[in-house]
C-alpha cells in the first residue's frame, strides 16, 4: 500500500512540474539543464530512500521489541524514535518515551467514559479516554532507571529500559524479522489474575505513531474488558428492554491502575497493521 502511495506522489510531482521544467530548460545552457535535472532527480531519490528506510525498519527489529522481557522485581519497557539528523536526539527521545511507559506500569490514572443511546433499531456509542501520570513517580524513575540495550536500525532507535536499575547481564539481543501472525491476536489470553487488551491501528506514515497508538488502544481495551467483566449483569438486563423502550447508558470510570504493561507486539506487513498486547492486573 505504501509503495503504491509513494508511486502516486512521485508521478504527481513529475506531472505538476514537467511543464515548468520544460520551459526553463529550453532557455538554459547545457550545464544549467544538467543541474536542474540532477536536483530534481536527487529530490525524488530522497523520497524513495526515506520511505524505504521506514519500511525496512518495520521489518527488522530487536527480539525484545516483539516480546518484552520479564525480569523479576523490575519494570521493563521499550522506547523508540524515528529518524533524526542527530542520532543523540533520537536516543534521548526513545529513552524519554520508555521512561514514561515505565511510569504507566508503576501507576497510571485512566479515565474512561461510555455514553450509549439505543432505541431498539440503532445504537449510538461515544467512547473517550484519558490518562494521567504521577510526576513524582516519573521523576524517581528518571533518576533510578537503567538502559539494558539500545539499537540503531537504519536511523530508527530502539531502547530497552528497566526500573529499578539492573545490570542486564542476562539480556541477549537478536535482530529479527516479523514472523507469522501470533496466536494471541485471534485467541486473547485468559487468566484469573490478569485481563488482556489488544490494540490495532493501520495506515500510518510513521511507524512510531502507529506503535504509540496501538499500545494506548491496547491499554484502554484492557480497562474496558475489566469494566465489562464487572458490569456484565447490568448490560444483560439493559439489553432485555431494547425491543420495547429506549435505553440510555452513561457509564464513566476514573481508575488508578498499577502493574499494567505492554508485553507483545506484531506488525502485519501485508495489511500495514500494528498490534500490541497489554495485560492489566485484576484489582
Overall structural class, as computed from helix and strand content, comes to alpha+beta
Mean pLDDT: 77
Spans of at least 5 consecutive residues whose pLDDT stays below 50 are: 47-57, 229-246
Q: What's the assembly state of these chains? A: single chain
Level of helix content? 40-55%
Largest sheet, strands/sense/barrel:
3 strands, antiparallel
Roughly how many Å is the radius of gyration?
Answer: 24 Å
Percent range for β-strand residues: 25-35%
Count of alpha and pi helical runs: 7
Whole-number count of domains: 2
Strand order of the largest sheet: 2-6-5
Describe the structure.
The chain has 283 residues and is α+β, with helices and mostly antiparallel strands. The protein has two domains: 2-57; 60-281, no CATH class. The chain has seven helices and eleven strands. A three-stranded antiparallel sheet has the order 2-6-5. A three-stranded antiparallel sheet has the order 4-3-9. The protein starts with a helix and ends with a strand.
Amino acid at each position: 500500500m505504501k509503495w503504491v502511495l509513494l508511486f502516486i506522489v512521485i508521478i504527481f510531482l513529475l506531472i505538476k512540474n514537467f511543464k515548468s521544467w520544460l520551459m526553463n530548460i529550453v532557455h538554459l545552457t547545457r550545464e544549467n539543464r544538467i543541474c536542474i535535472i540532477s536536483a530534481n532527480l536527487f529530490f525524488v531519490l530522497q523520497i524513495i530512500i526515506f520511505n524505504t528506510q521506514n519500511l525496512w525498519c518495520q521489518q527488522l527489529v530487536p527480539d525484545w521489541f516483539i516480546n518484552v522481557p520479564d525480569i523479576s522485581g523490575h519494570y521493563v519497557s521499550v522506547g523508540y524514535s524515528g529518524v533524526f539528523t542527530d542520532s543523540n536526539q533520537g536516543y534521548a527521545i526513545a529513552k524519554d518515551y520508555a521512561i514514561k511507559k515505565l511510569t504507566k506500569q508503576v501507576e497510571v490514572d485512566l479515565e474512561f467514559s461510555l455514553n450509549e443511546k439505543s432505541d431498539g433499531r440503532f445504537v449510538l456509542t461515544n467512547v473517550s479516554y484519558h490518562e494521567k501520570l504521577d510526576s513524582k513517580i516519573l521523576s524517581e524513575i528518571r533518576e533510578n532507571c537503567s538502559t539494558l540495550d539500545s539499537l540503531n536500525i537504519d536511523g530508527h532507535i530502539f531502547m530497552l529500559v528497566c526500573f529499578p536499575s539492573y545490570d542486564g547481564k542476562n539480556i541477549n539481543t537478536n535482530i529479527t524479522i516479523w514472523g507469522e501472525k501470533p496466536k494471541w491476536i485471534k485467541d486473547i489470553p485468559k487468566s484469573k489474575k490478569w485481563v488482556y487488551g489488544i490494540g490495532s491501528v493501520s495506515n500510518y506514515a510513521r511507524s512510531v505513531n502507529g506503535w504509540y497508538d496501538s499500545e494506548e488502544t491496547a491499554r484502554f481495551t484492557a480497562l474496558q474488558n475489566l469494566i465489562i467483566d464487572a458490569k456484565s449483569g447490568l448490560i444483560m438486563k439493559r439489553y432485555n428492554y431494547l425491543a420495547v423502550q429506549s435505553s440510555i447508558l452513561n457509564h464513566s470510570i476514573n481508575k488508578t491502575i498499577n502493574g499494567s504493561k505492554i508485553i507483545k507486539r506484531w506488525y502485519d506487513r501485508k495489511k500495514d497493521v500494528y498490534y500490541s498486547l497489554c495485560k492489566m492486573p485484576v484489582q
